[in-house]
Design goal:
single chain; alpha/beta; globular
Length: 471
């Protein structure tokens, strides 16, 4: 593979987290690299200067025109397949790879061990599951890293100085779309719900790209028993002979499943005589936090680890050692008997549904950019748990209207402001609505960019407002 790239004219589409490493690796392998980028801002110019110093050609402000002589495109995952650049590539017979595809083809560079990939995708829970998986693998004494869509370059992992025993790989639907050769050791699809449909064009296309993660699996295809669509993707996949379908469930597991029995995570998939026997892996209390959707994440991670031969004790030790990232159903404080929980990462209805299901009596802070979402089903499912709702953000009216239709008895505070200071007022209003024993839950079901730079800043604003309550 490296020798095939020597002298080849490769166009890298997009700078950023994936494009810059791709350009550097390709240049180092002797390819003639041109980088094209839509933007021409200060950050792009800084990255361009760095690459140009190495001898890479960079073209800013025009990501649509195919450079003359291009023999291969390596694209950033977020670039839409309908972009004129790719239309021109198809007409010219130029193949298009993503950075994940490039990383897959460069495994074992310079004769080093090609670490197997344990891969995870899904609409929600990917990052947490991959981090749990890496923690379990480390507890088993394996050299590993959580890489991919989690923000750590796969290219750096496969071409860097560290040799790994196995990689825990988070993959988005965008990355999977551009990775036709990927063949994981084992893979999991956690769940499927409408998301990124503007990019994929339809739910069917979105699901098909997610399902690519199962293609060619060698040992196990891990699916969600509660989400039939994930099992359907397993059935449709072309896997290696002997590869097994392994389910995870929050209920009692059947043969070839992992599940929960009397507060224990148990394995009936990777044990002798799985029709009669089960192996205790951990306690539900070992999962941090032990919310239902997070327990499901832990079971999926355990399934992939067990497929790789990890002992049961390492599953327990890895889950106990795991600390979730900020803004993922994170307990901020208790004030006057009310718990305040930050789940700013819940940027769509599917994630928010799981978050709301974790608590019995909730004052819900929601709103932001809806991204085309509807909220009727979410509100219908959560209505009995809602003590009150505080709405913020540009598209809050969509949630307010759903509440009026399906939970008219729930008190609603509609804050007609989109400045960052609205969060302090939202927390103060939530405190007024809450009673001892309630949970004030920031689970916006919307993106944050109408008011904040990102969901991290939104969660930080919530936490700061809560701290001011307790001051």
């Amino acid at each position: 593979m490296p020798s095939e790239l020597t002298g080849k004219h490769v166009t890298v589409a997009g700078l950023g987290v994936s494009g810059v490493p791709a350009a550097k690796v390709l240049h180092g392998l002797g390819a003639r690299v041109t980088v094209v980028n839509d933007g021409d801002d200060e950050r792009a110019r800084t990255q361009a200067a760095e690459l140009e110093a190495l001898g890479v050609t960079v073209r800013l402000g025009d990501g649509d025109t195919l450079p003359e002589g291009t023999e291969l495109i390596v694209t950033a995952p977020g670039w839409k397949p309908t972009k004129p650049l790719f239309t021109a590539a198809a007409e010219a017979g130029v193949p298009v790879w993503g950075d994940v595809e490039l990383a897959w083809r460069l495994r074992g560079l310079d004769g080093r061990k090609a670490a197997p990939w344990l891969a995870v995708t899904g609409t929600n829970g990917k990052t947490t599951t991959v981090q749990m998986l890496a923690s379990i693998l480390k507890a088993a004494g394996l050299r590993t890293a959580a890489v991919g869509n989690i923000g750590v370059s796969l290219l750096d992992a496969v071409t860097g100085d560290t040799e790994y025993d196995v990689l825990a790989v988070e993959l988005s639907s965008y990355q999977l779309h551009w990775a036709p050769s990927l063949r994981a050791h084992s893979a999991a699809v956690l769940n499927l719900a409408p998301d990124h449909l503007d990019w994929h064009g339809s739910m069917e296309a979105y699901a098909a790209d997610k399902g690519r993660i199962y293609e060619g699996n060698r040992v196990a295809c891990v699916y969600n028993v509660a989400d039939r669509a994930t099992e359907d993707l397993v059935r449709a996949a072309d896997v290696e002979e002997g590869c097994r379908a392994v389910g995870f469930t929050l209920g009692t597991p059947g043969p070839s499943q992992l599940g929960v029995v009397e507060g224990l995570l148990v394995d009936r998939a990777f044990v002798e005589d799985r029709h009669k026997n089960a192996q205790e892996l951990a306690e539900v209390a070992d999962v941090n936090p032990p919310a239902p959707h997070n327990v499901a994440n832990a079971l999926a991670a355990a399934g992939l680890a067990r497929a790789f031969g990890v002992p049961a004790a390492a599953v327990r030790d890895g889950l106990r050692a795991f600390t979730p990232d900020a803004h993922r159903i994170a307990h901020v404080a208790d004030v006057d008997g009310v718990a305040y929980v930050d789940d700013s990462k819940a940027t769509n209805t599917h994630a928010t549904e799981a978050s709301l299901a974790a608590y019995e009596s909730i004052v819900w802070i929601a709103g932001g950019l809806a991204k085309g979402a509807t909220f009727d089903e979410l509100v219908t499912g959560a209505a009995k748990r809602l003590r009150g709702v505080v709405l913020i953000g540009a598209d809050r009216a969509l949630i307010r209207e759903a509440l009026a239709r399906h939970a008219p008895e729930v008190p609603v505070v509609d804050l007609d402001r989109t400045d960052t200071g609205a969060m302090l007022q939202a927390v103060q209003e939530a405190r007024r609505l809450a009673r001892p024993g309630d949970t004030v839950l920031l689970a916006p079901a919307c993106a944050s960019m109408d008011m904040f730079t990102n969901y991290n800043q939104r969660g930080d604003a919530f936490a700061q407002a809560v701290r001011e309550l307790g001051a």
